[in-house]
């Protein structure tokens, strides 16, 4: 998968590195802003400090 | 780019599948690490900002004139879920945090949560609150430091209530609802005293236990 993506990035080597960084940055941002907050309640090791039956 | 030698047939397919599986596991590993980083660092970045904003908002509303304060929530009745209605000061933990109604995850990300159905500040019964130990600003991370005699001050629109810890932090199970009963650990007994209970997780890196502390009211001072 990663080799396929790399081969399909445009331009010379340094341009590809730049693209890889941009795409990674956007992905990490999307994870932190949307995906992780959404799955957080379902993850078992996220303690919430309150008592519940 | 290096060229992989073409391998025909069965071996080539197995190698491709193994490579794909390896990439999958690697990706999953990176995602898990990112999630841990999110929990331990990013939630706190967001929550610290949210909590200080909420505290400032409450303090601003309360420092207004008498008419403005009358228009603001008067905490004899519990406010709607998710609403901030008090500020808790815990000098021993060096913490000043907003108190919001409810103890769901969304609310606890914004501050300390007030257990629904428990007493309001200064009232007879048990004013019970919960706070994260780790993540979302780590409000109660230093909870074990609390000692008998430590003051906990609850600030509301109408008064300052000073409680004092009289049961040092102890560990119990997550389902121990009796700890937040009107008379802590005496469910069904009618309350006569004005008490406070604080709860958080234990150990700090998991949530299979809870840590609890109790206190009682020693002073009530109306806002001038």
Question: Any overview of this molecule?
Answer:
The complex is a heterodimer of chains A (53) and B (224). Chain A has 53 residues and is an all-alpha fold. Chain A has a domain at 2-37. Chain A has 2 helices and no strands. The termini of chain A are far apart. The mean pLDDT of chain A is 84. With 224 residues, chain B is an alpha+beta fold. Chain B has one domain (53-222): Beta Barrel (Sortase, Chain: A), CATH 2.40.260.10. Chain B has helices at 9-62, 66-71, 105-108; strands at 84-90, 95-101, 112-114, 125-130, 151-155, 159-172, 194-202, 209-222. An 8-stranded mixed β-barrel of chain B has the order 1-2-3-4-7-8-6-5. In chain B, β2 (95-101), α3 (105-108) and β3 (112-114) form a beta-alpha-beta unit. The longest helix of chain B is centred in the N-terminal third of the chain and has 54 residues, at 9-62. The termini of chain B are far apart. In chain B, 35% of the residues are buried. The mean pLDDT of chain B is 89. The A-B interface holds A 1-2, 6-7, 28, 31-32, 36, 39-41, 43, 45-53 and B 1, 20, 23, 31, 34-35, 38-39, 42-43, 103, 105, 108, 113, 115, 130-135, 140, 174-177, 179-180, 199-201, 205-207, 210.
Rounded radius of gyration of chain A (Å):
18 Å
Strand content of chain B: 25-35%
Hey, which two chains have the biggest interface?
A: A-B, 21 and 35 residues
Order of helices and strands of chain A: HH
Question: What is the total tally of β strands of chain B?
Answer: 8
Q: Give the topology string of chain B: H per helix, E per strand.
A: HHEEHEEEEEE
How much beta of chain A, percentage-wise? under 5%
Main beta sheet of chain A, described?
none
**Distance, first to last CA of chain A:** 45 Å
CATH class of chain B: Mainly Beta
Instruction: State the helicity of chain B in percent bands.
Output: 25-40%
> Could you say which structural class the secondary elements and strand pairing of chain A correspond to?
mainly alpha
Q: Stretches of chain A where pLDDT falls below 50 for ≥5 residues?
A: none
Please state the overall shape of chain A, judged from the principal axes of the Cα atoms: elongated
Radius of gyration of chain B: 24 Å
End-to-end separation of chain B in angstroms reads 76 Å
The domain tally of chain B reads 1
The largest β sheet of chain B comes out as: 8 strands, mixed, barrel
> What portion of residues of chain A is helical?
55-70%
The secondary structure category of chain B is alpha+beta
């Amino acid at each position: 998968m990663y080799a396929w993506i790399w081969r399909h990035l445009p331009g010379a080597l340094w341009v590809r590195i730049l693209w890889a960084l941009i795409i990674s940055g956007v992905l990490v941002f999307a994870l932190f802003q949307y995906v992780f907050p959404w799955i957080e309640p379902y993850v078992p090791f996220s303690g919430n400090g309150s008592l519940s039956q | 780019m290096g060229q992989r030698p073409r391998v025909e047939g069965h071996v080539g397919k197995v190698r491709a599948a193994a490579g794909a599986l390896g990439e999958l596991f690697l990706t999953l590993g990176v995602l898990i690490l990112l999630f841990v980083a999110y929990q331990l660092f990013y939630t706190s970045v967001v929550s610290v900002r949210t909590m200080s904003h909420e505290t400032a908002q409450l303090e601003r509303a309360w420092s207004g004139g008498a008419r403005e304060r009358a228009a603001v929530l008067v905490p004899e009745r519990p406010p709607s879920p998710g609403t901030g209605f008090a500020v808790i000061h815990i000098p021993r933990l060096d913490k000043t945090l907003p108190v919001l109604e409810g103890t769901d995850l969304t609310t606890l990300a914004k501050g300390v949560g007030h257990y629904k159905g428990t007493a309001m500040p200064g009232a007879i019964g048990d004013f019970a609150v919960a706070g994260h130990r780790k993540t979302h600003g780590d409000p109660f991370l230093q909870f074990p430091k609390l000692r008998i005699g430590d003051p906990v001050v609850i600030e509301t629109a109408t008064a300052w209530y000073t409680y004092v810890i009289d049961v040092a932090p102890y560990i119990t199970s997550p389902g121990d609802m009796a700890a937040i009963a009107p008379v802590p650990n005496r469910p069904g007994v009618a309350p006569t005293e004005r008490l406070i209970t604080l709860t958080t997780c234990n150990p700090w890196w998991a949530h299979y236990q809870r840590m609890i502390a109790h206190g009682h009211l020693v002073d009530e001072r109306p806002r001038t």
